[in-house]
Amino acid sequence: MNRTQFRILTDNWLRFLFLASGMLCIAVLLGIFVMLCYNTVAFFTQISLWDFISDSQWSPSSGTNSVYGLLPLLVSTLLVTVGALLLAVPLGVGTALFISEYAGESIKRVLKPTVEMLAAIPSVVIGFLGIVVISPVISMVFGLPNGLNALNGAILLAIMALPTIITVSEDAIHAVTHSLKEASLGLGASQWQTLRLVILPAAYPGIIAAVMLGMGRAIGETMTVLMATGNSLAFPKGFFDSIRTITATIAIEMGEVPYQTTHYYALFAIAFVLFLITMLVNVLAERIANNIRKFQ
């Protein structure tokens, strides 16, 4: 076999390997989706859809008085996610702008690795930080019996989402062509005007992608919210209430639930809801980013 034939054979094998890898990923995702759908349908053969979405109590038990209401879990999940984004987006985008446009090289060499190292901290450590540091501060500042509540979870999720938002936003801002900046400055605009009216609009698609990735990290996080939000199944009324998110409920109850019971299927049903939320967020983010690109 000469060199040309060996190269062709190698290319064919690599093409097949990459194709097989891609098809395997699709098959795994399809299998997860089918499993979620199957168990969710099995749940709704026993519990009505209206009861599932309207009941304000999640109280599974072995008797006939079980209640499987989605609302407290869904509201708790959205509460900490929205709170995390309200904290992380301004801080993350602002930090990305500082790194890209204002920081000197010496500051960048320290700040960027520090942000990336923040992403490597395990969620268990973040949760422990929330219990021993942030929770007492919240309790003292707001005069609460304890600080294990939605606000604590939102702060911790914001910390966990910051590396993603900062890194992706900084890449998007850095990718804006220098000609746009130079043209704006050449027309007499200040650096702040250039940043606000030229650089930020041009980087919007990337910043939106960063926010959506950060939101996905917040929605899907389990261990941190399990440790630091109080794990109360009561319907939350605000950030100072203890809550339990969808992911925490699945993590706590799946290991002990009897197989193929109503409770077992209910956990798959709330997992399917979480899957739908994530998918809708990604689709919406893609549509918004595409619409912005059309006008640039």
* Uncertain segments: none
Largest sheet: 2 strands, antiparallel
Distance between the termini: 53 Å
Strand order of the largest sheet: 1-2
Strand content range: under 5%
Percent helix range: over 70%
Q: Which structural class do the helices and strands define?
A: mainly alpha
- The radius of gyration computed from the alpha-carbon positions, rounded to a whole number of angstroms, is 24 Å
* Topology as a string of helices (H) and strands (E): HHEEHHHHHHHHH
pLDDT average, as an integer?
A: 85
Q: Helical segment tally?
A: 11
Shape: globular
Number of E-type strands: 2
Describe the protein in words.
Helix 8 (191-220) packs antiparallel against helix 11 (262-294). The mean pLDDT is 85. The protein has helices spanning 3-44, 49-54, 71-102, 105-118, 123-142, 150-174, 178-186, 191-220, 223-228, 246-253, 262-294; strands at residues 58-59, 67-68. It is globular. It contains 11 helices and 2 strands.
Brief account:
The protein has helices at residues 3-44, 49-54, 71-102, 105-118, 123-142, 150-174, 178-186, 191-220, 223-228, 246-253, 262-294; strands at residues 58-59, 67-68. With 296 residues, it is mainly alpha-helical.
